[in-house]
Amino acid sequence: MAQTPAGPGVDAFRLPRPVPQVREPRSTSNDTPMRETPDISTEVGIHLKLETSDEDDDYEDSLLSDSSSGLEDGFPPSKKGLPISQLRTGLCYDERMRYHSEIAATSGENVHPEDPRRIYYIYKELREAGLVEEPGVVPFVEHPLLRIEAREATKKECLLIHTDEHYEFVKSTAEMSDESLIDLSEDVTMDSIYFNNLSYFSSKLSAGAAIETCRAVVSRKVKNAIAVIRPPGHHAEVTRTMGFCLFNNVCIASKVCQEDFGNECRKILIVDWDVHHGNGCQGAFYNDPNILYISLHVHMDGKFYPSGPEGDMYHCGAGAGLGKNVNIPWPSKGMGDGDYMYAFQMVVMPIATEFDPDFVIVASGFDAAAGDELGGCFVSPACYAHMTHMLMSLAGGKIAVCLEGGYNFQAISKSAVAVTRTLMGEPPDRLPATGATASAIDTIAKVRNVQSKYWRSVYPKEPVSGSFEGERLHDIIRQWQAMHLYDKFKLTQLHVFRDTVSKSFDQQVLASPNYEARKYLLMIFHDSPDLLFGSNSGVTTQQKPQDTWLVDGVQSYIRWGVSHNYGVIDINIPEFITVDPNTGSSSYGESGGYENNNVEYSSNQTDLARREGEKLASYLWENYVEPYDFPGGIFLIGAGHAFHAVAKLVSENENVYPNLTGIIGFISTNPIRPIYNHNHPWLPQWYKDNSQIFVSRAHSLWKKDGKASKRYGTLVRSEGLLLNEMMKLHEKEVFEWIAEKADVEGDEDEEDEDEDDDEAEGKTEDEEDAVAVKTSGDTESDNDTRNVLGETATANNTRGESDGDTIDDPAETETARALDSTSHQFLVPVVQSTDGTSDEGATSGGGGGGGTSAGVATNTSGPNNGGDVYMTTE
Ligand SMILES: [Zn+2]
To answer: How far is the centre of ligand 1, averaged over its atoms, from the C-alpha of 366 (Å)?
Structure first.
């Protein structure tokens, strides 16, 4: 309503505060037409009558009278008025929580991030937004925030979560000398904490503030509330302080509310959107079936604070609490609005809705906010508002937001105001169109898979053993592909002996008829085709096939090969590979990433699956290629993670490359694998001269300075992002390159000319065999010959083992951001129309779309087993 502090009418609406004036609704006569809604803009300060039970008598309305017969049958009577939204939003803030501070006054860069001023800046921003009522300050809103008094939590309350020893320890700090407090703060076992003599008091006040805030919401003294409190709590464990946290505020408040309100507040949802995992909350309620803890946090494979595996997605609770712990662990920093909205739509809200809590508490760190250095993420105030808005749909709107971390004064203030305005009833600001990143989509898919065991509304589910005869979609797709490739090109299966390579490769290898008698051979190793998902309701995450599209970039290559009389062998590398149980699970831990010895091909924790791919490649070479003669030449194509098999085949089998004419690679966000062999020092030069490795513009490679070694081949920057998109984008280029190579077999001078120039240039800057990188695609007109990755080549020449030596790519964030704007996909409907004359089916947009690029295989942080692994580190 009135936003300006001056002008006619303003004084009038100020009068009734702070006690809301309750008047009769202006018009309750039986014949008020619908259109005659009371115009309250001219009569500010009018309040609709609150519903009371004795008013049920005059439950009549002209709108109903005509057709009243039976209308009420089976429906509860409509509620009258807006009893809940009339209530004010609560605010708990007490400046005495600022007393907890570092003893040694530090300044500049040494100031501890958990700075007492954090809560002051939030409060100040709320006041400046006109939402707060305090002496001498005129709020800009009719119903300003209702102040909730903070108080110290009692010992009894703290002991609902913490041990007596822990409580007594914190208490003892109140009496310690400054020297011992400083010593204590430097004690590593305290894990990121500082104390002064008032820390005990402030932390009890913080916990008490959380309690009173939650109690005010549950008891409906306020509509909902925000507690601007510190020190934070979500890292504090049952037995110890940790990560700036002394007592676990939201956990204590949860327990107090359960005790005080019984059935009215039995099931509590805690959503923790602090950028760090709330290890304290998870630990406190791990066995509790009545408290659902959902945390979204940066995890980085356990390398981000608080470190370790506890924050991974496989920690789902235990005992009675199994399934009541949901971790959404981001694999890297850099997550943004699209990722958080996607997580809310696909995981948080479906699960929260199914849980149906009596009360919602947000452990609201604002350190995932844009501008927070500790978090390194990009969540905007508007996004926090949207998340708040979604959670407000739960528990009849009973939601309390309690501050946790967040260390950039600007970011936390703006975010807190956005959340508070939303709590007060203001719609969230619009979010600019934004898509989830590939790594978020990948993470969410895995979280859903894990959580689908515990939640009816979450899909996909593992097939119930035997009863459904469930088949993996990728098997079905491969069968369809095989059929289709037979129909079109008469491709048939090459037999692969099970005892030699994984059974996962059954039916994955197809070859064109009499391929072995052709002049040329084209061997294509590629990842499974992508699925694009269309619309989804969000309440359940079940995916319908009619909204799902199969994207296959390989077909045009097969068609080209077959139509040019090449022998074609098509090798599909499934996303999951069944590995030998004897080499598998033991090293991988119980909660680790796979079951039934199914290992993800792109896994960054083990290369067991990729080793199966290597075996397959050698097997095919030995049995289906080597015995025959292809006088025109042999070309290998490796697309996506499958490129690994190509690189290994060439690197480790000395007799392979002399028979090859060229190698094509397509790398979107997966690591770039080198090709080299210590016994053949000239192999990298050969590779560089005879390869085209297309690398997505979003790959972290392009962000590095320096030069890439020849071992990575001739790297070509692609304007594409998704694998299939890249394959489509460069197909002409590739066909021409292959044709040219095939023609000039044995005579390579002319075509290497310009590259030699580049190389000469590079060598002046770097003693190692540096290559210049050539740019392809036309959007960037600068003839971008910048060099990449200086030390790459020298670092690790002696290593021969599997995965150490890659140019890795966790740059998925940018990939998906960019994807958001690049909507052209190449879609092939899952069910091919029978009259399809062209199998290209490149209808872009289609029913798919949805802005998301599901199924993009991403590799966030590659194999990190030493060697020159290149990662985008923060
Ligand atoms: Zn945090």
So the answer is: 7
